[in-house]
Amino acid sequence: xxxxxxxxxxRGDATGGKFVEYTTExxxxxxxxxxxxxxxxxxxxxxxxxxxxxxxxCGSCSAEINGIPKLMCMTRMDTLNTDKVITVEPxxxxxxxxxxxxxxxxxxxxxxxxxxFNPRKPDAEDGTWRMMQEDVDRVQEFRKxxxxxxxxxxCHVLRDHHKxxxxxxxxFLVYTAALEMHPLDTEDxxxxxxxxxxxxFCNITKCCTKVCPEHITITDNAIIPLKERVVDEYYDPxxxxxxxxxxxx
Amino acid sequence: MATNxxxxxxxxxxxxxxxxxxxxxxxxxAAGVKVGLICKSLLGKAHTVMAEGGMAAAMGNVDDRDSWKxxxxxxxxxxxxxxxxxxxxxxxxxxxxxxxxxxxWGAVFDRxxxxxxxxxNFGGHRYPRLAHVGxxxxxxxxxxxxxxxIHQGITVHMEYxxxxxxxxxxxxxxxxxxxxxxxxFRIFKAKAVVxxxxxxxxxxAVTSNSWEGTGDGVSLAYHAGAELLDMEFIQFHxxxxxxxxxxxxxxxxxxxxxxxxxxxxxxxxxxxYDDVPENYRSQTSxxxxxxWRYTQNDKNAKRPPELLTRDHVARCIxxxxxxxxxxxxxxxxxxxxxxxxxxxNAAEHIKKKIPSMYHQFMQLANLDITKxxxxxxxTTHYAMGGVRVNGETxxxxxxxxxxxxxxxxGLHGANxxxxxxxxxxxxxxxxxxxxxxxxxxxxxxxxxxxxxxxxAYKEAVExxxxxxxxxxxxxxxxxxxxxxxxxxxxxxxxxxxEMEFALDGIQKLKTRAAKVAVQGHLEYxxxxxxxxxxxxxxxxxxxxTICSIDRKESRGGHFREDFPNKDPEAQKYNSVxxxxxxxxxxxxxxxxxxxxxxxxxxxxxxx
Lengths: 249, 607
What we know:
By secondary structure, chain A is of the alpha+beta class. Chain A has helices spanning 32-42, 105-112, 133-142, 150-154, 156-159, 169-180, 190-194, 207-211, 218-234, 237-245; strands at 3-13, 16-26, 62-65, 68-71, 86-89, 96-98, 101-102.
């Protein structure tokens, strides 16, 4: 079952780089990250690659494999055509640091700008709350996110139009949705979503949903409901009228 | 190179940003001091994300017979009474408040029918006690702390590695390290330093730990003069994946057994019924039907033997494999698919209860666990031993140095119960942050000599100055050889002569490690990082081996084929490692302080 495969790996840094081909032997049951590690240990000791848990739980080893954003640790070699050269390159929506490692610090800065969780007063005298499972199911879906940023990488608003200053991207729309739909949360984040966080830029092509390794239904369950809330708040004519004429005080 | 390093000054520096580190940083920051937090990876990626089953806290939401006393007694029994009993007491008493605090910070735990935080059964816990979110509780913990922590004014340094702690006389006053991105060295001055660097599983060939688990904090603290405790106690988790080879060691959560999964050998026999230890016999079912009812929360049923403590289950699996009754790839079968005989919609139920396991096997092994059994075997999972700390303050014997989480020792004794790790992180992470902040307020900043910084710098970059060839080798082969040697000789079943062989081998590997050469640049250079990790791996491997040779009995995670029984005399001491004046590693047996009378009584009541 041993077989020769050729990987075409992007080597370089912020100033530029090129693809370098490495040929190595693989055995049964490997994932792409194993092959990268093997090349690193035997042919390219200094090849940079970010990884951590190797079980699809930490979201560190995001890359583009044959052009598709994926976790290297969760991509089995037997799902790829190993008769052809396999291309591995870094996420293209973020600046390069070196080889397969990109500068994802923008994501961490974006998160600090989103208003934090702000719970209602506890429901019970001992300081605890009561929530029903069916009321938290949808929030738990969003909280499965492992912050691999593959959704940010594939999003054309960021990748092709570079709207990083005006649009927070699918990851942080999911994050905001988890806060907005949290049964205990009392904060209102709709104004920022509309104004500075650019929810209107998303034109629901659903690419983010397709690449999510946690299978979060990003567009349908998180982004569209948030868009609806924004529309209800700012563009509903009856709502607008009611706000104008309702008794004040 | 001059001493012109960029310097960051903090009141409290926390090294490590998993559950314990984040919780310590949050607490110190809340106390009003300036806090720096060092992450070896990106923020939120630490190994805590891998914790699956839950966090133990006697809230009594599912079974109101639970209380801190039962949790305390369970923890001591699991640790086989060499635990730091004060830590076990504080842990049991404070865990519920720490879990409720997470909810106030946005965590969304699974719920009971009354809308409270749900709790699940786990090995060694008498009542359902683990607050959980499916099988991704660790992710929920770290994300909650991260999302809360980023608004607390903590300065986060991502992808930094610390190579040395800096001292002023006896006191730790900072740390020296580099950013992985560019290889730029930095000085971190701090009035107090908390190490929360997690585990050391990477000293072994088969481990559930990520690359980060190289025992950095334990080694850094040791070289700075801190004592290490009970390094012989390593937990081999009974169920790691064993096939395909690339995933060998990755954890299969205990929740699979908590939800009704059973262990079988190749003949289909549930072999766990064959060997139930005396001290658990009264709590363990002898009837499979009763065991099943226990997993479905029947309060009157006793637990199935699959949920005995991890050390015991791991050894039973080892025994089956050695006796030739294992599965094709050298493990045993873990079967959850069988519950379709018991409940309708079993496949959907399994996917709901243990979704990560379903996906893990589907994606990595191409196996549907709702239809077929998994192949599993023991994997190096957790270090009960680590830096010796004061049970209340988490202070080490070195002034200004604190430790919490897996890299600290004491709470778990000879064996940790599942679910007691996440609660350990939040209970003692908080305490470490609190007392480090207090220390920082009471002490001024120390002075750091240029000489020690230069020495640390020189040691770190030395591998670049050794030309390839001419007696040098790359760091990877030394690392592999160490891992294989520890796995084979200081692993799940131990023998005097094998461990002596390993101790000798460690000395030889030290010589080889001193000669490894790396090529290229300082930027994101994995070969260089591996070379630096080698020092830590060798330090902790030596400590593990010395302690294991000395403890001539079997207890918890430490099992000796040549001394298979417990020795009552050996229950009276802990193993303490320290660095002698000549730089050699020194071991002493430290008597365990007598337990408080009221706690003794609790243990009696719970027997």
